[in-house]
Write a structure and sequence with these properties.
3-stranded antiparallel beta sheet; 4 helices; binds flavin-adenine dinucleotide; alpha+beta; two-stranded parallel ribbon
């Protein structure tokens, strides 16, 4: 699937530093057995950050979706709370790091407090966030808008 999508992979490579131009991330420095290299990018999807909106425990204790909901999951693991609040929602804004225009932070590094991260840090939830981040990145680039939807 990765090959079909013509994704270029770099194995055993460690990202060490973003390349910034003001509020824009324009690439990532990484180290590998081949030495230090840079990948330049129009959009960066990272696995660490501090989002515009932190998902917290009270967000799990509601049955209402966010206006920017990107994923909905059943709440099965929290006993009485699950019976009372059977659905959970992930808002897009929790993938948007503060102060960077063209970066998305997906998977377990999305902005969340400890109880919310503990709940959402599962493979299906991370896959949903990754798919949402990839789709948002493609839409942002094709429509010429920032990742938060502004011009
Ligand atoms: C013991 C254990 C059992 C689990 N069992 C289940 C289960 O049964 N079901 C379930 O749904 N979930 C399970 N989980 C949770 C699941 O593994 C996580 O939810 C999921 O892997 C998170 O995906 P992620 O992409 O956010 O992070 P990860 O899968 O951790 O991926 C992050 C990747 O980034 C790489 N990386 C980190 N820093 C850098 C850097 N600087 N440069 C380059 N690469 C970097 C890491 O090497 C890693 O490969 C389990 C977790 C653990 C620890």
């Amino acid at each position: 699937m990765v090959n079909e999508a013509k994704v270029k992979t770099y194995l055993h490579s460690w990202g060490t530093m973003p390349v910034m131009d003001g509020n824009r991330a324009i690439g990532v420095i990484f180290e590998s057995k081949s030495g230090r290299q840079a990948i330049m990018a129009k959009m960066v999807i990272a696995t660490t950050g501090d989002g515009d909106y932190m998902v917290t425990l009270p967000d799990l204790n509601t049955n209402g979706p966010f206006e920017d909901t990107i994923a909905i999951f059943p709440d099965l693991d929290r006993g009485d709370a699950s019976l009372k609040y059977p659905l959970t929602f992930i808002p897009y804004r929790s993938l948007l790091p503060k102060g960077v225009d063209n970066m998305l932070v997906a998977c377990r590094a999305f902005s969340s407090d400890r109880p919310a991260n503990n709940f959402f840090n599962l493979i299906p939830h991370c896959i949903a966030m990754e798919e949402a981040a990839g789709t948002a990145a493609a839409l942002s680039l094709s429509q010429g808008v920032k990742a938060n939807g502004s011009d």
